[in-house]
């Protein structure tokens, strides 16, 4: 699976130390075992390490609960077969938002080992967010008992386009303070792990075909409606990244030519009509405090007329944009995610009306539109799946 941003630099801070060398050798053995159980002799051949070194590291992994062994007969000789335990290879999933941070630890069996979400200050800089991610990760490792040596990598979601040529956050991100920063390099330095960075909507799409109920779907569009609006694409069973990694910017599709000026510089973009930022601005007029996305869901479910009108207008605009995209790629399933997922049919109904109106009839009739069942965890779960897929692990 191609990655938009992936570094291959050395991951060790002090490559000359004994502990760093042992950690590196253990990682090499873990990478071999990700493909399945192997004998110690096979591990020695695959890694180039001596049989004594392999035996010593396997013993350390056993003591730490990362691996188990069993005697077998190989080529007529007695041998020791080595197998990773379910927590012997753990992926880190990190989701950076405009005001939140989520960090997950997930095992080979796609089981969440530990998770934590915290709030970040509005307008936070990259260094603040990265430092917070390191703190939360250290806390999760300590609380879950997972050894750092068991971590095979970290997947990271950013709410904005990522230029895969440079690993930098591109213009148009919901986090303007992060634009131009080589986020891949900074994260690898801070986490001391292999890092895979992607747009949060792309990770939402990946989560739906790995953790979610759409594992058999080859053509899926994940639409995240939040402070910004973005889409992640699974086409012919693979995430689609385009030329430089910037795809799915459906939030900047023009809906009204003479509409409001968008942060991208154009007028009448979908985000100026249907983002939670716009909804909050409209619904906060006359209120003592700004409403929140949670307020929007609560008021809409309570049949507040103004909220229902804003949601309906937003849904129709989203449906119109989706109709144009569907005419181009003909997805089997469109999944809607983000903080408004709790609206359910109150949001899906106007989206569906807009989609059917603006798509070719047969496409509108045969495209399944549904809410994400993963809620606000989708992006972080997709980030862990990104790590596993780069390691060659797919959910059965």
Summed up, what is this model?
The protein has 396 residues and is of the alpha/beta class.
Strands, helices and their partners?
Blueprint lengths: L4 E2 L11 H16 L4 E2 H8 L3 H13 L3 E8 L2 E8 L5 E7 L3 E8 L4 E8 L6 H19 L6 E8 L3 E2 L4 E2 L13 H9 L3 E5 H9 L11 E6 L3 E7 L2 E2 L31 H4 L1 H8 L9 H9 L3 H25 L3 E5 L7 H14 L2 H6 L1 E4 L6 H13 L6
Parallel strand pairs: 5-8, 8-11, 12-15, 15-16
Antiparallel strand pairs: 1-11, 2-4, 3-4, 5-6, 6-7, 9-10, 12-13, 13-14
Helix pairs in contact: 1-3, 2-3, 4-5, 6-13, 10-11
Describe this structure in words.
- By secondary structure, the chain is an alpha/beta fold.
- The chain is 39% helix and 21% strand.
- Strands 1-11-8-5-6-7 form a six-stranded mixed beta sheet, sandwiched between helices. Strands 14-13-12-15-16 form a five-stranded mixed beta sheet, sandwiched between helices. Strands 2-4-3 form a three-stranded antiparallel beta sheet.
- The two termini are 17 Å apart.
